[in-house]
């Protein structure tokens, strides 16, 4: 049976409106219906608009009261605050209630072996340890258009705009299939759970747990020496398990970057110092680009056309900066844009890097599953040290057999790439030899 929100999504418009009105308003008063309607009018007209328009911060501010009605207090943004310029600030304490998805930064991590002698005063135990990196609060605190953090009695969450005016229903359907119970309880399923859907007329917002860090934050090349090799490989095993699970359910993600893998705590164990015990769990998120096939689709037809890929990689947030005017509003806008401009440049590189070689033009026929494999393997290989001229950039050297798995997974020829399942088995055989 479909949840009622599903029915609303399938017939956006009147049904959605009626459901929202009926379900979310304690007193069925006309004035509330009218105020929801006028709230809707203030918000972006479609998903693309929300992803690209410069005033998304204003949109989230409009939603503040509506979401408070559901118990979600949006973090606040003060672009001109002297202490935290352009940073989102949680209401109240730094951390919300425990949710099982977010852990405060580990206090200590092993010092790198080249540590200088300056700490002779410390006990022998403390000499090898330095404060852990500040993960968890920094990245989420930068406003990200369709995502906004909020505080709930049961812990911090991230609210994501999933669908507007019917757009975005494809990934939402996939989320409903794999990110809600019972499937979410499957151990090999690493999809970040969708806790709740909130409907506002034709807009569907998804509530997801806020997770400590993304792998993009953990695998910073200059930090990699802090991550033990075994930890890193175990993380890769979980990533492959996440992809394998999606692929077994005939879902391809199509935006497989370290940004879209989250961990509840970063694996900073180290054999020479007191390790953090317990294994971190990896979650895969952002199914905005995902595509699924119904089980009856013959294997020969589980393909997409280049059109799909190129159509769904809009150059996000590339609107021209507005001419600077010295008004409060202009400064606020300029700041809103500046927040994203650095990320845009990174994103542009990533879009380029996400495009596998078999995708030549809109007519290229491609297997989305082998594109996922290529994207992931390319990401892993990009962690390896790079030599430009005489300078060796910091990085993480994979042991040869592991390197070989990812190298074949990133083959130019998609038919040479092992599936996520085969790569998972090969990696497990290396890590845990019989
Ligand atoms: C996978 O896990 C998610 C999140 O926990 C859950 O919502 C979803 O139903 C699961 N899907 C499958 C196919 O097990
Ligand atoms: C968990 O998911 C896998 C892969 O889809 C499936 O083979 C297995 O049967 C599932 N287990 C349960 C208990 O549903
Ligand atoms: C990890 O990388 C981040 C970003 O480059 C940096 O701010 C942080 O200090 C690094 N942490 C360690 C322990 O090197
Ligand atoms: C891919 O995921 C990243 C990180 O979540 C996101 O910033 C980017 O916009 C996504 N790309 C596309 C084309 O959706």
TrEMBL record:
Q: Does the keyword Cell membrane apply?
A: no
Signal sequence extent: 1-16
What parts of the sequence cross the membrane? none
* UniProt KW keywords: Signal
Keyword Aminoacyl-tRNA synthetase belongs to the record = no
Annotated coiled-coil positions are none
Q: Any idea what this protein is called?
A: Protein kinase domain-containing protein
Q: What is the lineage of its organism?
A: Eukaryota, Fungi, Dikarya, Basidiomycota, Agaricomycotina
């Amino acid at each position: 049976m479909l949840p009622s929100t599903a029915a609303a999504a399938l017939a956006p418009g009147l049904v959605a409106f009626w459901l929202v009105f009926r379900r979310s308003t304690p007193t069925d008063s006309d004035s509330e219906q009218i105020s929801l309607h006028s709230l809707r009018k203030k918000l972006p007209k479609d998903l693309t608009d929300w992803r690209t328009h410069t005033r998304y911060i204003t949109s989230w501010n409009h939603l503040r009261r509506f979401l408070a009605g559901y118990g979600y207090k949006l973090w606040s943004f003060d672009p001109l605050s002297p202490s935290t310029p352009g940073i989102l600030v949680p209401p109240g304490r730094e951390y919300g209630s425990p949710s099982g998805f977010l852990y405060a930064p580990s206090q200590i991590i092993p010092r790198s072996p080249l540590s200088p002698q300056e700490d002779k005063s410390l006990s022998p135990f403390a000499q090898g340890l330095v404060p852990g990196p500040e993960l968890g609060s920094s990245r989420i605190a930068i406003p990200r258009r369709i995502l906004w953090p909020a505080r709930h009695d049961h812990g911090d969450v991230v609210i994501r705009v999933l669908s507007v005016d019917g757009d975005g229903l494809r990934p939402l359907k996939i989320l409903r299939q794999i990110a809600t119970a019972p499937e979410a309880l499957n151990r090999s399923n690493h999809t970040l759970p969708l806790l709740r859907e909130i409907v506002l007329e034709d807009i569907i917002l998804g509530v997801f747990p806020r997770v400590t860090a993304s792998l993009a934050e953990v695998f910073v090349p200059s930090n990699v020496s802090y991550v033990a090799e075994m930890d890193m490989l175990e993380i890769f095993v979980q990533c492959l398990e996440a992809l394998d699970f999606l692929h077994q359910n005939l879902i391809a993600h199509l935006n497989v970057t370290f940004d879209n893998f989250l961990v509840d705590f970063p694996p900073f164990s180290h054999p020479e110092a007191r390790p953090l015990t317990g294994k971190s769990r990896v979650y895969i998120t952002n199914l905005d680009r995902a595509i699924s096939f119904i089980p009856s689709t013959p294997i020969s037809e589980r393909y997409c056309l280049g059109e799909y890929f190129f159509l769904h990689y809009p150059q996000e947030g590339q609107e021209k900066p507005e001419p600077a005017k010295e008004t409060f509003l202009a400064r606020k806008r300029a700041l809103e844009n500046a927040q994203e401009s650095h990320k845009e440049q990174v994103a542009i590189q990533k879009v380029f890097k996400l495009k596998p070689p078999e995708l030549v033009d809109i007519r290229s026929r491609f297997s989305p599953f082998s594109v996922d494999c290529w994207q992931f393997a390319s990401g892993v290989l990009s962690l390896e040290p790079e030599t430009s001229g005489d300078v060796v950039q910091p990085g993480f050297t994979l042991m040869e057999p592991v390197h070989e798995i990812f190298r074949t997974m990133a083959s130019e020829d998609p038919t040479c790439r092992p599936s996520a399942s085969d790569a998972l088995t090969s990696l497990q055989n290396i890590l845990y030899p019989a």
